[in-house]
Amino acid sequence: MKILVSAKRVSDPNAKLAIAKDGKWIEGDVEYILNPFCENAIECALQIAEANDGTETVAIGIGDDETARFIRQGALARGIDRGILVSADEEAIDSDLIARIYMGVVHRENPDIVLLGKQAIDGDSNQVGQLLAEYLGWPQATFASKVEVSGGKAIVTREVDGGLETLEVTLPAVITADLRLNEPRFASLAGIMKAKKKPFDELEIDDLDLEDTDTKVQVVGLSTPSGRKAGVIVKDVEELVQKLRSEARAI
Amino acid sequence: MSKVLILAEHDKGALKKVTLNTLAFARQYVAKFGGSYDFAVLGHNVAGVAEALRSYGAGVVHLVDHADLAHPIASAWAKVLADLAKSIGADIVVGPASTTGKDVLPRVAVRLGAGMASEIVSLTDGGAFRRPMWAGNLMGDVKITTANKVISVRASAFDAAEATGGQSPVTAFASDAGLATARVKFVSFDGVQSTRPDLTEAAVVVAGGRGLKDKFGAVTEPLADVLGAAIGASRAAVDDGFAPNDYQIGQTGKVVAPQLYFAIAISGAVQHLAGMKNSKVIVAINKNPDEPIFKVADYGLVADAFVAVPELTAQIKTLRG
Lengths: 251, 321
Ligand SMILES: Cc1cc2nc3c(=O)[nH]c(=O)nc-3n(C[C@H](O)[C@H](O)[C@H](O)COP(=O)(O)OP(=O)(O)OC[C@H]3O[C@@H](n4cnc5c(N)ncnc54)[C@H](O)[C@@H]3O)c2cc1C
Ligand SMILES: Nc1ncnc2c1ncn2[C@@H]1O[C@H](COP(=O)(O)O)[C@@H](O)[C@H]1O
Prior knowledge:
The complex is a heterodimer of chains A (251) and B (321). Chain A has 251 residues and is α/β, with parallel strands linked by helices. Helices cover 28% and strands 31% of the residues of chain A. In chain A, a hairpin with a 2-residue loop joins strand 8 (153-160) and strand 9 (163-170). The longest helix of chain A is centred in the N-terminal third of the chain and has 16 residues, at 36-51. The radius of gyration of chain A is 21 Å and the shape is globular. In chain B, the strands form 4 sheets. A 7-stranded parallel sheet of chain B has the order 7-11-6-1-4-5-12, with helices on both faces. A 5-stranded parallel sheet of chain B has the order 15-14-16-17-18. Chain B has a 3-stranded antiparallel sheet with strand order 8-9-10, with helices on one face. The longest helix of chain B is centred in the first third of the chain and has 17 residues, at 17-33. Chain B is globular, with a radius of gyration of 21 Å. Chain B contains 9 helices and 18 strands. The chains are: A alpha/beta (251), B alpha/beta (321). Chains A and B meet through helix 3, helix 4, strand 7, strand 8 and strand 9 of A and helix 3, helix 4, strand 7, strand 9 and strand 10 of B. Strand 9 (163-170) of chain A pairs antiparallel with strand 13 of chain B. The structure holds flavin-adenine dinucleotide and adenosine monophosphate.
């Protein structure tokens, strides 16, 4: 079996963000981390590989040269077998093109499972896995909190509004990871050493035989939302009740 | 002129309010760009949902009722919805950014060659779609450059649209999910049983955090009972098993904006704030005065929740007689 898994770099959620001069993305001089949902996807891929002998795992990141570090340290050092970097200016492309880049890589690699995060915590779009599944004509199981693979099928429990849904998808399929899927492991020192020698391909979008590289959605401007001001600290429950009643008229 | 197709959300045969929040967006869109809107009701035994939508001013309520659509399998729903959009010439498909909408709508976009924008909170004067990014720390204005468009709407950002009277016709559309269901099988649904209002519909939300530990229910339920409130939770409370996943509020859970929000033993991490900071009135009860939740709270009470919340519950009860 072969699993393709994502390694996307995102700005640290605790970083102070500044809007870039062109107003279309953030200033780049912030801390970056591996997208937390990709960590869950990577852990899931490793667990499936450990349970199924002969499984090959491949991590893919789409971005600039810096992204390579996150593929190596976030995926290969944890135990993923190979890495692929597709060079792209992430700020200038949209979810649709990301999904088509994935499709191009899927056509080269022929994986049985593509494991992505349910969303990227910078753009918060929650689209790429679903777009990719439709481009490929594959079934999908998004927002996974449990994945079991056997006999060419995956049984996936999904976190949805109202509770937990379980689907059975016939492979090949796209699965997107939610945060409760697993506890991502840490890379060991040996893993970090090994990662440096693992196979690593660098591709250009042009290598992927896409029909075009047009985007469909553009960020035309960013702004800071109007913030909330801190209110008052009340001294006890009685004052809280009184304020909620007479001032806020909320109860 | 635009033709908007709105995906209706329902649960066990009942229309969900998020559909009306989504309609509010569609009406704004039509007011700005001209045109009309239709509803799409997909499912099985859902004629009642279509009936309930007839008084909301749609050109047509399209009903696609088929056993294949009993569960919202994304590949099947997307095919049917895209087929319907093509057959009526809709150039924009919109739905709530619920887990169903998030699952289905991107696939519709691919089928229509459309660009998609997620979790729209408003239309800008310049006609761009505004959406929160980076956990709501920044707002992004996005332009969709394709003729066809797909939008998921953040329900909490729009007041539910009112009925306008009138009787839109209900038209059956033949489902042809066909092969789109072939490789997916619905196995089971483990639903949260609750008699409380839906989190995304409630006027009051009582949310608890990790600090409540295994007393999560004992602390939040009596207060929710006296207020007729929904119960929500931080991710940490869900992770630790004190509350079901359906309760999670935040960047990766539900987004709510009730009249009144209680954050009890919740620290106020950015990811949690992303899901509740647009609530009208926020009350924070936390024993640590330095927590970031107090920076967004209208009323902060520094106290032990195990003591303060039962006291609060009792006082509100007395007040209400
Ligand atoms: C990618 C990503 C996505 C995330 N998405 C979400 C999300 O959607 N929603 C979400 O909520 N979080 C999310 N998180 C997690 C978030 O970062 C925080 O870890 C989480 O919100 C913390 O939950 P908490 O406030 O309940 O727990 P803690 O941070 O542990 O806080 C517990 C609080 O309880 C207080 N407390 C303890 N005992 C008492 C007592 N007896 N009385 C009063 N107060 C008490 C403490 O002072 C403290 O403030 C996400 C994180 C990541 C990385
Ligand atoms: N630049 C990228 N490189 C690799 N994977 C990506 C990239 N962008 C998005 N993804 C994957 O797609 C998922 C969903 O992203 P999004 O739809 O942008 O929220 C992410 O969790 C990643 O798994």
